[in-house]
Amino acid sequence: MPAKYDTLLVLDFGGQYCHLIVRRIREHGVYSEIVPHDISPQEVAALDEKFNIKGLILSGGPSSVYEPNAPKLHPNILETNLPILGLCYGHQLLAQLVNGKVEPAVCKEYGAAQVNIDKPVGVLEGLSITEQVWMSHSDTVVEPPPEFEALAHTDNCPVAAFRHKTKPLYGLQWHPEVIHTKNGAHMLQNFIFQICRAQANWQMENLIDKMVKELQTETGGGRAIIGLSGGIDSSVAATLAAKALGEKLTAVYVDHGFMRAGETEAIRTAFEKFDIHFIVADAQERFMNKLQGVIEPETKRKIMGEEFIRVFEEIAAQSGAEYLIQGTIYPDRIESGFRKNSDKIKSHHNVAGLPEKIKFKKILEPLGDLYKDEVRKVARMLGLPKEIVNRQPFPGPGLAVRIIGPLTEEKVSIAKKSDKIVREEIERCDLIENLWQYFSVVTDTKATGVKGDARAYGYMVAVRAVESKEAMTASFAKIPYEVLERISTRITNEIPQVTRVVYDVTHKPPATIEWE
Ligand code: XMP
Question: Which residue, judged by its Cα, is nearest atom 14 of ligand 1?
């Protein structure tokens, strides 16, 4: 196992494909992280203590280099002497930094384009004379900077790719990270291995050992508790923590009352088989009391985040635990607003939902750098049973973020029953393989209906089923009408308070997966 992973840093200029670059690099077995766009050479050097930094990639972004507040590179970034690859906005910024000529494009290019490769060298080695690429830009580099040479052009973009004549500095006007750039993986591979000379030493086997050792080092023989919701992330984190800490770990399942029907029993059965000290904290009443009358989604999330911690603190006081371990993953951190140029979308309860004052020495997040599919890989390697590996993700605040408006016992009961029906019908039809999540939402809207020849005025329940790879983007699933019909019939028949069922046909973006 290497002491440090070879790593490429992706400088974040706010582009929608930023996290895709990271994923593409990781797919080559090389570690990668998103860092702020104006990271200084000193900050890169500091990161080099932990990772073996081999190169920098400048992401795309929505700005024009001419906008007054456009995000810029640190002026001394070239002093790192690391290989640099600028993509799209990053390509223009790199050109601007080294005195190239960047101008607003005469003709803007969006979408698929043909690029002529004039010199198939460096990042472009092994490519054909013309390549299909994905463009999305309004500025363009019209002249290569001094000491640089142009490597490719399109009809509207004279310098679609360039490189420094002697240093490992490259720019591409297009996005090699999206699948529409046909040989994008090959271009990134050239940069990672030929230009940066990185080793593919970020392998899952190594990673498990490393995460276990880090947990041992960070807890230094102390006791810890882990919040176990039964979703895939916390299950994997708990298994790793149990490997690291043995009997010094207590896994706590907080039953806040907004769990799915049958969930508590299912989790208890699944985890009683493991060699883990597992306890269930019945906290239904205290959560409901705190949430009385709360409507605003972010407030709900914050209250729940705080209450979770208070429950954990009480249990820690009994067991002598000084550390709290959580199953937070990389997208949770991104969406909770840790990227400088991206907005906070929502406070994932275990990240931004945390209260300011916490009675733990430290919170540890062993999976904090991983995407969901990487967590599933780790789960398989740890030998976790299929029913845990394939569990659909379930948000920490549970059904509370699937009940719009004030939380009442009646709405919670509708949420549990309708969610169970959605699960049963979808699982019965073998549809789950392609689905990321499928669930119901109890809206705060009421609608008129007719039941048994009488007027009924009841709740509207929405059904949501999405396909996704890592939850950063998602598409609504085109599940067959017959299945929707069965779900709708059962919900309206079996839950008297519901008069209407609708299907959510919104992608993410612009929607999020959960309704709150
Ligand atoms: P959104 O709704 O942000 O959800 O598109 C993306 C994914 O994250 C899950 N999710 C959460 N998971 N704590 C979690 O552990 C949370 O607070 C939380 N909020 C959303 C959501 O179910 C989806 O898979």
Answer: 395
Token couple for 138: 């309004």
Neighbours of 409 (CB within 10 A): 9
Residue 329's SS3 state is: coil
How many whole angstroms separate alpha carbon 175 and alpha carbon 154?
14
Please give the full DSSP string across 150-188, using - where no structure is assigned: EEEE-SS-TTSEEEESSSSEEEESS-TTSTTSTTHHHHH
Q: Rounded to the nearest 5°, which phi and psi values hold at 148?
A: -110, 165
Is the CB of 395 within 6 Å of ligand 1?
A: yes
Q: What mean pLDDT is predicted for residues 261-271? A: 87
Catalytic annotation, pick one of 19, 91, 175, 349: 175
Q: Which atom of ligand 1 is nearest to the CA of 327?
A: 15
Q: How far apart are CA 49 and CA 396, in angstroms?
A: 34
In whole angstroms, how far apart are CA 19 and each of 192, 479, 513?
A: 16, 28, 18
**Partner residues linked to 500 by β-bridges:** 460
Mean pLDDT of all residues in the chain? 91
Residue from 513, 515, 516 to probe ligand 1 pocket by mutation (most atoms less than 8 Å from CB): 513
Residue 365 has pLDDT above 70, yes or no: yes
pLDDT digits (tens, 9 = 90+) for 322-364: 999 999 998 787 766 555 555 555 566 565 567 778 899 999 9
| Choice from 236, 332, 392, 504 to test ligand 1 binding pocket (greatest atom count within 8 A of CB) | 332
The 10s digit of each residue's pLDDT in 53-65 is 999 999 998 888 8
Looking at the CA of residue 436, tell me the nearest atom of ligand 1. 24
β-strand partners of 242 = none
Confidence of residue 427 (pLDDT cuts 50, 70, 90): very high
